[in-house]
Each structure stands twice: as C-alpha cells, then as structure tokens.
Design goal:
339 residues; alpha/beta; Nucleotidyltransferase, domain 5; five-stranded mixed sheet; 10 helices
C-alpha cells in the first residue's frame, strides 16, 4: 500500500510517499522545506508568514516526492494529511491541498493527528513495535505523556499546562541572544557547562503527571535579568546545562510516577525535543535501570515530517477512520485528550 502524506502544522512543509506491507514500512520519499531562515529574522514563528511559505512550497514538494519515489499518481492508494493540532493558517494549506488532490484523483482521504504522527514515526525503525506501550511526545508545541492502547487508541495522561519543552528552550535561548531555533545551540552549550551550577525549580507537577515549564522558563529569564542588572557575568554553558538538567529532572520525575502507575515495559519518545542529546542519554539510563525497552526515532524523523503522517495514516486507514471533503483543520484537540 502506498500513502501520499502532507504535513504543514507549523513551520515545515513536508510531503512523503511511503510503502506499507504488513510489518514492512518504507519511506520512498520525504521532501521537506524548512522556514527556519525566514522566522529567524523575528526570533520565532510568525503564523501568517508560515502559512504563506507553505503555499509557496507545497506543490513543488509534491512533484519532488513523486520523482524521488519513482511512482505515479495512479499507484497511490490513499492520501493522509495533518489536520490537527497546529497553527490554523498553516494547517489549512496542507488540508486543502490534500483534499483537492484526493478528490481530483479519487483517492481515500485520511485526517491525521500531529501528535499521533510523531509517535508513529518510531515504527519505521522499530518494525516489531506494537502497542500497548507508553509514549512521550516532546516538541516545540507539545509535551504529552500518552498511554497507547492500540495504533489508533491513545489516552493522554499528562501534558504541559502552559509552555511546551521546546518552546521553553527557544525562549530562554532567545533571551541569551542565541539564533532561532535555540534548542540545538542550547544542547551544544549544555555539553560545555556544569549542570549543578544553578538550581532551578521543578517543572513536574506534584499532584499529577502534568508539567509546567512556564515557571521554569520564567525563573531562568529572571536569573538572566538579575545578573545583567547587577552587571555580573553569566556563564552561558552553565546556565544551559542547569536549565537542561531541570527539564530532564522534570521528565524523569513524571516518567517514574507513570511507570509506577502503568508498569509499562516499552517507552516511545518522539518529537523535535527527542533529538536533544542530554534528554536521550537520561532516558536511556532511566530505561536501562528498569529493564524498559526505549524506542526513539532517529533525529531525521524527530522533527515534523510527512513520513510520520503517512505511518499514522496507514493505521487510521486500516481502522476505517477516513475523511471526506468536509475535513477541516483544528488548532487544538483538548476535548479529545490531545490525541
């Protein structure tokens, strides 16, 4: 089965064609256009600009995806597209393009939840992976702990109450004068610093599996402002390492509570922040100590991409979760537990 998939939920336009035959899942093409250079001028994603950039990129990426995959439109069995959650103007670009493509070529249409897509990216590199398992999605817009009961049945048991992990990293990096996006530079600087130099507050909530990264972010920014007002030097590596340690500490705290509650034997960690080397190392140690199987996509599939949408689209198709031309974009899915 061949699935053509579109992703445009934030600042990356991506089109992929993927093949699915039982447990064999293969990415035939995955064409992605990033907008980092555009949004770096503003220190963050500007929704209106993101939407316009998606419009400019999506058609050419589609042609490139077909050329790379070496298949024709007739060979495509279904069309999948991210329909929720994300920036509404950005989502609408791929949703409408996918609807038009599916309608014109008489192909089944599948609406895909972006968070589910991040988790599904893991299936490419772990073909034997099957639910039930526990998952964490950490990205610029989402921080969620999810009990995955089947490929299409998810229960969100923990989430951020304010800022997502990636958002907190980017905001702290911006205050330090790092280029957008700041996550990669924060990761690099943290490797050079002392993680115990500064003790920042806990971001894990005591009464639940939720997080609050806004308070942690504010504490770090206040620390920076206080140092600058006093004309005192700031060790960027130490600050980056200490902030990263606080983030990792919060993640491990909640995963420990989740493991006690659910007793999971497999942990999937996905999303853009899953590329952070310090988080990956800490999660590896956490799982090794407890005999938990850790599954993480390679860094190439941690960020937003069409292949992950194709993977989840495949399972939604098998479950009969098809859409029609009334499919619309949704910026949030709070009422559905986030997934």
């Amino acid at each position: 089965m061949l699935i053509l998939a579109f992703e445009s939920s934030c600042d990356e336009t991506s089109v992929a064609i993927c093949s699915f035959e039982g447990e064999k899942k293969q990415v035939l093409s995955n064409q992605t256009a990033t907008q980092i250079a555009i949004h770096a001028l503003y220190g963050g994603v500007v929704p209106e600009i993101a939407g316009r950039a998606h419009i400019e990129a999506i058609a050419n990426l589609t042609y490139a995806a077909f050329e790379e995959a070496g298949v024709t439109v007739k060979e495509i069995d279904a069309v999948a597209v991210t329909s929720e959650p994300g920036l509404i103007g950005a989502l609408l670009v791929a949703v409408n393009y996918a609807k038009a493509f599916a309608f014109a070529n008489r192909k089944p249409l599948i609406g895909v939840n972006h968070i589910r897509g991040h988790i599904a990216a893991t299936y490419y590199e772990y073909p034997d992976l099957k639910p039930p398992f526990f998952a964490m999605v950490a990205s610029g817009g989402h921080t969620s702990l999810i009990d995955v009961n089947s490929p299409t049945k998810f229960v969100t048991v923990g989430r951020t109450r304010d800022d997502a992990i990636g958002e907190a990293f980017d905001k702290v990096a911006r205050v330090l004068g790092m280029p957008y996006p700041g996550g990669a530079e924060m990761d690099r600087q943290a490797a050079l610093g002392n993680k115990d130099a500064i003790r920042f507050p806990q971001a894990a909530m005591q009464d639940s599996l939720d997080f609050s990264f806004s308070g942690l972010k504010t504490a770090v920014i206040n620390y920076i402002h206080t140092k600058r007002q006093k004309n005192e030097p700031i060790s960027v590596p130490d600050l980056a390492a200490s902030f990263t340690e606080a983030v990792v500490r919060a993640v491990l705290t909640n995963l420990e509570k989740a493991h006690s509650r659910f007793g999971f034997q497999t942990l999937v960690v996905a999303g853009g922040v899953a590329a952070n080397s310090h988080l990956r190392a800490a999660l590896s140690g956490f799982c090794n100590k407890r005999g938990i199987r850790l599954c993480m996509p390679s860094r190439a599939y941690c960020g937003d991409n069409g292949a992950m949408i194709a993977a989840q689209g495949y399972f939604e198709y098998l479950a009969g979760n098809l859409a029609d031309t009334s499919l619309n974009a949704k910026p949030t899915v709070r009422s559905q537990g986030g997934v």
